[in-house]
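User: Here's a structure from my thesis project, written as structure tokens. My advisor, Dr. K., wants to see whether a designed sequence matches the one we expressed. Can you design one independently, without my sequence as a hint?
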């Protein structure tokens, strides 16, 4: 028996109470496999969208505090500032601390000095490139050779705009 490459696909079924096979998605390592379509797990996307919304909420609260302290201040949230926060590298948690400077760790070696004693020589550790969610999606597209991942996060701008409209108008109304 031979397997042809053009007809090969991964499928997952679950069996109902009636004993009928129903096609379903198979989740593995953060991906959902649905026959010919592979995508990012929906829980990962939901987490990303929640991060966008919480960032917008925090910025809206700050805007309201500014308006309360100075009524002449314009009611505004700058989209580029919000985008910078929710596109931070993945290793940072979503919170106010993300806007502060991160201390770099120091690397040290024992070095023999001119008096014949060993002393520590400290040097700054070079950081690896830090990846955000968009660069992760880009790498997924390259590995799987498909654009389906980019299509899944296409509505992130829309989610941000809806959150700005909702929370800025809700708080100031």
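Assistant: Designed independently from the structure alone:
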């Amino acid at each position: 028996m031979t397997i042809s490459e053009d007809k090969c696909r991964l499928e997952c079924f679950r069996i109902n109470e009636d004993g009928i096979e129903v096609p379903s998605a198979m989740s593995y390592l953060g991906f959902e496999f649905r026959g010919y379509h592979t995508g990012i797990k929906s829980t990962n996307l939901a987490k990303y969208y929640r991060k966008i919304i919480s960032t917008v909420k925090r910025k809206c609260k700050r805007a309201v505090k500014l308006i309360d302290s100075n009524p002449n201040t314009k009611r505004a949230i700058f989209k580029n500032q919000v985008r910078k926060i929710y596109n931070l590298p993945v290793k940072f948690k979503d919170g106010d601390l993300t806007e502060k400077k991160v201390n770099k760790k120091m690397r040290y070696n024992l070095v023999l000095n001119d008096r014949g004693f060993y002393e520590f020589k400290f040097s700054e550790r070079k950081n690896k490139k830090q990846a955000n969610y968009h660069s992760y999606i880009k790498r997924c597209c390259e590995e799987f050779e498909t654009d389906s991942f980019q299509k899944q996060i296409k509505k992130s701008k829309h989610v941000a705009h809806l959150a700005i409209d909702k929370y800025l108008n809700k708080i100031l109304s």
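When you compare it with your expressed construct, this may help: The mean pLDDT is 78.
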